[in-house]
UniProtKB/TrEMBL annotation:
Residues 7-133 form the NAD(P)-binding domain. It comes from Rugosimonospora africana. The lineage of its organism: Bacteria, Bacillati, Actinomycetota, Actinomycetes, Micromonosporales. Keywords: Photosynthesis, Photosystem II. The keyword Glycoprotein does not apply. Pfam families: NAD_binding_10. GO terms for cellular component: photosystem II. This is Nucleotide-diphosphate-sugar epimerase.
Length: 246
């Protein structure tokens, strides 16, 4: 198959691209910094040429600032271009519990899913939990001053490479017109994740509990970002992933 990965240079997207190539597919990496297919989802630049002859598209793009422009409006642009190119399957990568979390970025993810579900191309949604990579980055940045703010929240982090495998499995198959949930091996409090990070990496940082007031705090403490019975469960724990020096 010929498969395009929007956001194929990102944390998840590069693993999806690698995995699908290993399986023998022809993979096109689409992003603003891609050497092969320079595409900007904010404007639609480069999309038409990038999608010629593609059987499936994985959307692994992401943006923290002005996220809706890339994830929602970008999805509309991407889907319209896919339709014009005759693409038969659009795979949207989303986040476990995004519809339970009262926060701007998660609302954008829900809006992105809606656009995909109502769009002109047969679709699948793969929701994943937070990546080990994200949590490790936050700890590394947050721990620079040897104090690490730790909210009382529960996460079920997964190695991006394992989430990517699940995304690649879906991309190879027929459109689900539905969703699967992919989650890490175990739900863990952020404090415990921070302790693990400290002991495996040898970094020193004082863990400082920070209150998370309001509905967002309550939902995160209650495990809204976790999935006890995912369709796919990763096997590599945060400790194992850190120890492997990823
Ligand atoms: N990170 C997590 O913990 C996590 C957990 C669950 C689900 N997810 C979901 O997984 C997906 C990928 O997340 P990620 O963390 O792997 O993202 P990421 O590392 O931030 O990568 C984002 C990708 O999007 C591309 N991109 C950004 N703006 C673009 C634009 N205007 N046009 C075209 N490409 C653009 C980037 O490349 P350029 O900068 O070169 O354009 C890059 O390849 C997202 O849907 C996210 O919601 C993430």
């Amino acid at each position: 198959m010929r498969i395009a990965i929007a956001g194929g240079t990102g944390t998840l997207g590069r693993y999806v691209a690698e995995d699908l190539r290993t399986r023998g597919h022809e993979v096109r990496v689409l992003s603003r910094s891609s050497r092969e297919y320079r595409v900007d989802l904010r404007t639609g630049e480069g999309l038409e040429a990038a999608l010629v002859g593609c059987d499936a598209v994985v959307d692994a793009s992401n943006a923290r600032k002005k996220a809706a422009e890339v994830l929602v409006e970008g999805s509309r642009r991407l889907l319209a271009a896919e339709r014009a190119a005759g693409v038969g399957h659009h795979v949207c990568v989303s986040i476990v519990g995004c519809d339970r979390m009262p926060m701007g970025y998660y609302r954008v993810k829900v809006a992105q899913e809606r656009v995909v579900e109502a769009g002109p191309v047969p679709w699948s949604v793969v929701r994943a939990t937070q990546f080990h990579e994200l949590v490790a980055t936050v700890f590394t940045l947050g721990g620079r001053w040897r104090t690490l703010p730790v909210p009382r929240a529960v996460l079920q982090t997964i190695a991006a490479v394992e989430a990517a495998r699940a995304v690649a499995d879906v991309a190879e198959g027929p459109a689900l017109r539905g969703r699967i949930d992919v989650a890490g091996p175990v739900a863990t409090g952020v404090r415990e994740l921070a302790r693990t990070w400290r002991s495996v990496t040898g970094r020193r940082a004082l863990l400082v509990p920070v209150p998370m007031p309001g509905r967002l705090g309550r939902t995160l403490r209650a495990g809204a970002a976790t999935e006890p019975s995912p369709d796919v469960r990763g096997t590599t724990s945060f400790a194992e992933w850190l120890a492997a020096g990823q």
